[in-house]
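Retro notes
What went well: the complex prediction finally ran end to end.
Inputs used:
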Amino acid sequence: MRWMWYQEPLASKRRYELISSKASIEEAGNYPGNALLALDKATKHFGGLAAVQDVDLQVRPGEIVSIIGPNGAGKTTIFNLITCLYRPTSGDISFEGRTLVGLTPDRVVRRGIARTFQNIRLFNNMTVMENVLVGLHTHLKASVLGSLFHLPSVMHEEAEARRRAIELLSFFGTGLVERQEEYVVNLSYADKRRVEIARALAARPKLLLLDEPTAGMNEVETLEAVKYVRRLRDELNLTILLIEHKLTVTMGISDRISVLDYGRKIAEGLPEEVRRDEKVIAAYLGKASTRGEKAPVDEKAEE
Amino acid sequence: MSASMSNRLLLPANDTRVLLIKWVVALLVPVVVFTLWSGESIVNAVISPQTSSLGISTDPVALLAAAIFVTVFYASTITLAGYLVAADSGRRGIIELWIDVFIFTLVPLILVVIFHDLILGLALCAVVWPVYFFVRGRVRKARHYIPPPPLESLEVLDVGERSILISRATAGGFWFGTAFAVVTLITDLVYFVTGSLPTLLLIWALIRTLVLPIAGYFLGRLAGVIALRRTLAAKGNGGNGANRVGNGIGTSLRQQLEVLSTTRAREEAKDLVPNDLPLRSTGAQRFYLILLGAFVLFYPILDPFLFGSGTDGRLANYGDAGRYVILALGLNIVVGFAGLLDLGYVAFFAIGAYTWGLIGSPQLGFLTGIVVNPQLWPWFFWPMVLGAALIAAFWGVLLGAPTLRLRGDYLAIVTLGFGEIVPIVFLELDNITRGANGIIGVYSPNFPGVLWTGFTPTPYYYLILALIALTIFANIRLRDSRLGRAWIAIREDEIAAASSGVNLVRTKLFAFGAGAFFAGIAGVYHAAKLGVVSPDNFSFGDSVIYLAMVVIGGIGSIPGVIVGALAVYAINELVLPQLDTFAADPSSVFFTIKSSIIHFAPGFTYGSVRNLIFGIILVVIMIFRPEGLLPSARRRRELHAATGGAEMGALDVVPGAPGFEEEVRVD
C-alpha cells in the first residue's frame, strides 16, 4: 500500500527506533467490548453547569464515528476530556483498555490519540514544515546535548523527520509540499485545516479526533475534506472520531453517529437510524418541524 | 587572460558600468575614511615600526596580528565589492543606496571617532538608526515608493550569463582595488610632498599601488565564484548550491519560491543572486561576519591605533558589556524563545556569582576548614564555569517549577519575587556570605603565561569573548533543535503544543534551566573579574535592564539581543554617567543645555535625571522601532502583518488610527 511508511518507525536504523505503534488494528480486538476508545459515564461539570453528563461512547478500531448536536451540546468538551485538556468530574475514559484520566495532554498523544481544533490552532508564525515537525515531537529523541553537538544520530533523525513531514504533507497532494517553507498564517483556510491534520498525523495516532474539519469551507472544499477523511481511514488504517455540523457530511461518511443535546447522549446508531430518530429531529429542528433531511447547518462556533 | 576578457574588464558594458560606480563609491568612501582615520597608521606601524609616532608597542606579535587584521580587512572588502557588483540586480536607485550605506557606515565611524569609544559610538547609532528608518519610511510613503515585486528578480542564469556574472565580479574587485590604490597614492604623495612621509613608506605606497589592482582582479574572481553558488541555474544544470532538491518530491528552490506568498518569497529570495538588496543577502552577511570576527579578535591590539591611550579602561568596559551580552542571550531563551516573562533573572546571575565567590575565595577555608593552595586553586575556575552554570540551571528548574501553572502577568509577578528573594537570602546568610560586606578576595582564573589582575583587562576580554562565542553557539543550536521548536510552539499556542505531544512541564523547565545556565556563566565571570561578590550587585533594576536589552534588541533574535545588550549597556553605563563630565566642557552641547535648564531648576545635574533620560531613550527606540533593533523574521512579521511586511522600518499606521490596534497586537 502507498502509505506503508505510516506504520513504520521514523528512522530505519534500529538504533534510532522510535516508540512504534505496535498495537495494530488486529491486536485491538482484545479490549473489553472491542472498543479502542470507551467513555464510561463521562461527566464534566463547570460549576453548576453540566457540560457533559453520563456520556457512554465506544469507538471500535477502523470506525468513523461522528458526534453531532446543537451548539453548546458538549461535543468539544468531550474532545477536551479525551485529550485530557479537561479532567472528567466523574466517569472514566479508556483507550485500548487503559484509562486516560489523569494523564497530561502530551501523554495522551504518546498513547496514540491526536486531534485537530474547531478554530484551527496552528503555530501561525512557524512554517508549514515546522508545524509538522512539532507534530513529530513525540517521535524524536534528540537530547539537549545531542542537539548541541549535532551528533550523527540527531542529524540523521532530523533528516528523517523532514522526509517524513514531506510525506505527510504529500497526503494532500503537492500543494502543501511546495509551500512547506511558507508561514501558515499566509495559507488559505482549507490549507490550514490540512496542515493541522498533517500535524496531528505526524504523531502517528491510532485514533484521530477531528473537530469540525469542514467548518468554514465551501462546497468544493467540503467535498474534498470528506474524501480525505475517508482516505485517512482506508489508507492509514486510522480510527476517526469526528465532530461535524453539516449533516450531509456526517451522514455520508460515518459508520455510526452519536447525538448530544445539553450534554447528554440522546441517540446513537447508524446514520439511517439517527436520521429518523424523533429525539434527534426535535433537538435539531425544534419540536414543531419534522422535515427530516434538510436540517439547518450551524455556522456559529461552539464553546 | 583572453583579450576579450581584459577588454570587458577595462571597458565593461553599460549596465555593468553603472553597477561599478554604484558599489565602488558606496564602499570606497567608508573604507577611505577608515584608512585615513587609523587603517593607514596600522599599516605604517607594521611596515616601519620605528617611525610610528603614537607610542605604540613594537611587540612583534602585536605587529603580526595587526598585519593579519589589515590583510583580512582589505581583502574581504575588495571581495565584498566584487560580490556586490555581481549580486546586484540593478533595480534600486543609486542615490538611495548611497544614503543608506553612508548612514550605516559613516555615521558610526564619525560617532566612534568623536566619542572616542567603540561601544559608545555604536550605541548612539542605535538611537540614530531607528529615527532614520522612521524618516526613510515616511519619505518613501510620501513619494508613493513601492519596492519592486520579488519574483521578477528570480533570474535563472544560463551559461553565458554565468560567465558575465564572473566577469562583473572581477571588474568589481579590480576597479575597487584600483580606485582605492589611486586615492591612497594621491594622499601619500601629498604627505610626501609636505615632508611627513618617510621614503620607506613612499616605496611601500608605490608597491601597494601595483599590488591592489592585481589583488582586486583575483579577489573579484573569487567573489564571482561565491556569487555563482547562489544563483538559480537553468534546467538540467545540476550541481548548483541554490538548487535544493526537496527530498524525493523533486521541487527545485525556484518552484518552491514561486508558490510562496510575496512576503515569504521576498525573505527567501534575498539570498539569491542577482537580487534587489545585495547588502542584506546572506552572501554579503558572510563578509560582515568575517570583518566583524577579525575586528573583535584583534581588537585589543587595534585599540591603541584607533583611540590612542586609555586602552585598558575601554577593554575593561567591553568585558562588562560582554557579561551583559551573555545575560541577555540567556534571558532571551526564556522570554524570546519560550515566551515566559521572567522578571527575576538576576537571581541566577547572583547564584552563579556566589558559587564561585564561595568556592573560589579564602571564604571556603573559613567555612569548611579546607586549606587550598592559592596558587593552584584558581585553576579550579575552569571546571567551575560549568559547575556554577549547572548549579544555576538546577535552581532555575527548581524556581521554575512552581510557576508552571502560571501565565503572562502572574508568571512575571512570581519570578519577580524570586529575583527579590535570592539576593536577600545571600544578604541575610551573613555567617556564610559575609552579608552586606560581600565576599572579598575572589580568585581570578589561572592560565599559563597569562597575568590575571584587575589592571590587565586583555585576558578578561578574551575570556568573555570565548564565553560569548560558546553562548551564541549553544543558543543557535538550541533554537534549531527539537527543543527549540517546542519552545517556539509553546510561545505560539500552549494548548496546541500540548496536544501535539510537547510536554509542557519539561519544556518550560528546560527553558528556565537553560536561561539560568548562561546567567550562571556570567555570574562566575563577574565574580572572578571583580574579585568581590556583594549582594548590592543584584537588584531588581538589573533584571529589568536585562529585559530591556532583550526587548530593544529584538525578542527572540540572537543578533538582535547581542546588539540590544551592547546598546543598552553603553547608554546606561557609559553615556549617561558621563553627561556631567561632558557638560563641564563649555564648548559641548550638554553645557549649553545644562546652563539653560539651570535657570529654572537650580542645582540641576545630569546625574539627577539620569534615569529619566534613559527612559526617554528607551521609549524613543520603542516608538520608532517596536520590533527591536534587529528583529527576528517571525517577530517582524507579527508586528508588520498588516503592511504586508514590505519594508523594514517604522509603523505605517498612526497610533489611535483604526488599524493600529491590529498592527501592534502581540499574542
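What we learned: The longest helix of chain B spans residues 159-193.
What to try next: split runs per interface for comparison.
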